[in-house]
Amino acid sequence: MNQYxxxxxxxxxGGPRITWAxxxxxxxxxxxxxxxxxxxxxxxYLMYQWGWIPDAFDTLLSFQARAFLGGQIWKPFTYxxxxxxxxxxxxxxxxxxxxxxxxxxxxxxRQFFRFYVVCGAAGVLANFIPFLLRGLLGxxxxxxxxxxxxxxxxxxxxxxxxxxxxxxxxMFPLPVPINARALVLIVVGMNxxxxxxxxxxxxxxxxxxxxxxxxxxxxxxxxxxxQRERRHPSGEKEVKNEFDRIxxxxxxxxxxxxxxxxx
Length: 263
Fold this sequence. Notes:
By secondary structure, this protein is mostly helical. The chain has helices at residues 20-50, 56-61, 65-69, 75-78, 86-107, 109-125, 128-136, 150-163, 180-197, 203-231, 242-251, 258-261, and strands spanning 168-169, 178-179.
């Protein structure tokens, strides 16, 4: 067993044992946020000395729809490692910690890294929907900068609910446990409310990450079956592997399972 399939035995904090990729992603996001904080006083110094602010994080690395159309195609991959403030960072990392370990164990570490990046990149591109709608309605409107791991984290939540839909949680302030399927519905409702209130949250990125996570998990078993068919001509017997089991799990998403409900 190599580093891409095993997970760390430490860092449990009384919750799920952290896995290799989740640990690295938490460390990477924390380190980059520390660099963002260190950059602020440097910007003030450069403004005082030269009258110039090299707004490296917000301008060069966060996502803006117009900038992407202008050729800054790296932004869907860099924005997801930036955060606007400490609470923004902590909330995303908590969701990643609690749900990411299970998904990494299901997918494997390399596949989980790909899943995380794809959900984040595809999620932020959903911001083109309101951007283009504003253009069709004859107005330009704002083109806000988007940053944060929320698109990736929402994809992770969907993958968790698809592979273990009846896992139960206590969610403050609810006095009764809820399962993963109900948690997804609660998150969707909260995002709809946030979108109606226009509270500065990129709801498009959240829903884009959810859709990307769902599509990825649905297509992954089929892609691997197609790859195995190319490697093994028809008639050759092959033992069912983990991706077949994933396929069976995601095909039963949100179905009533009486046996699990009795647990």
